[in-house]
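Researcher: Good morning. I'm working through a list of sequences from a screen, and I'd like to move beyond sequence-only analysis. For each chain I'm collecting a predicted structure so we can compare shapes side by side. This is the next one on the list. No need for commentary yet; just the structure.
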Amino acid sequence: MADDLRDEIALVGIGLRVPGASSPEAFFSNLARGVDSVRAIPSERALLRRAAHAKDRVERIPDHGGFIEGAERFDAQFFGFSRKEALATDPQHRLMLQVAWEALEDAAIDPRSLRGRRVAIYTGVLGNDYHDLLLDDPRRFDLYGYVNTAFSALAGRVAYALDTRGEAVSVDTACSSSLVATHLAVSALRRGDAELALVGGANLLLAPEFSQAFTRAGMLAPDGRCKAFDARGDGFVRSDGVICAVLMPLARAVEAGHPVYAIVRGTAVNHDGGTGHYKTPNVDGQTALLRELYASLALDPRDTQYVEAHGTGTRAGDPVEAEAIANVLCADRDPADPLWLGSVKTNIGHCEGAAGLAGLVKVALSLKHRTLPRSLHFEEPNPKIAWDRLPLRVVRETMAWPSRCLLYTSDAADDSLRV
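Model: Good morning. Structure tokens for this chain:
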């Protein structure tokens, strides 16, 4: 293997529950076919349904979202839970246990083989609806309810179930939570603090309060559709999502013959700092982060072919993100070689604490299949983005990945690809 690959990190396993899919294969099939997995609030989400049809218009929320089927299902006996403990445990935690196990099996790793080993676990999380629901009934909120709905337990539960000895950290940095968790995992692997890392993100919509607050702030799309980079963009749509990815050093993955979806070349994290408003993104901050990342990797930004954008479909966010991307990746770019943009939120909605990981998994699967899925609901380009002078294009139809895709192959890891 080339020496320059020895410090790179491989994504070798995926487990997930996202709207419309409960496996990586089903998820990518939906993406490639342009399936819109947003739907009406299902009957089992009774509180959300009531809030969506409330008489008070100020309290009314959109009646569509991205929802996981069977979010309440859990094999308590398999994971050693009593019925009482299972009922008191946040369904986000229960699903994370299941998708972590599936991600390891997808990576051809026996989860039981990790006992006592330095495996790092980082999970992104934002909402805590189940905790709030238990508080509404003091009889149900005992020690189990307190411990098993805590953010810390999202990562801790997985570490306990696998009996691992590495870090177990839950991260809440709002919508970036699961990508910051990924950054922490990559950093730990490169430092040698762990031999393997699990990165997760979880979000379940069980109570109406967040949706009501977002509605009052004008942040949710009334039609329940995320129209990223479109002139009609008027907000995002909330969704479920529980995802786990397995990361390890590329050298170890190749040596052991693990399947490799993609290679993570680098990560970076910053904060926008002060802006005109706390909710308003900052072009300078986002531009600085991209420049820092490309400089650290000694990569020519013009070699980037596709960006999986945050792409919430909001009036403020999309133009800022597009400008920051263009500032770094479109400078001196040949118009005949445009930079392609897309957003998984147009397919499944914004799964908040798991949103970044949903985008990362989309790109990894796209690399594996050498296919760029279409970004939905893009009809009229946002006029606040300078499309006429920027070699920037939204993927409007599913297409083959551009031919300049960087490949690394070996006998043990055929068709490994870099992201």
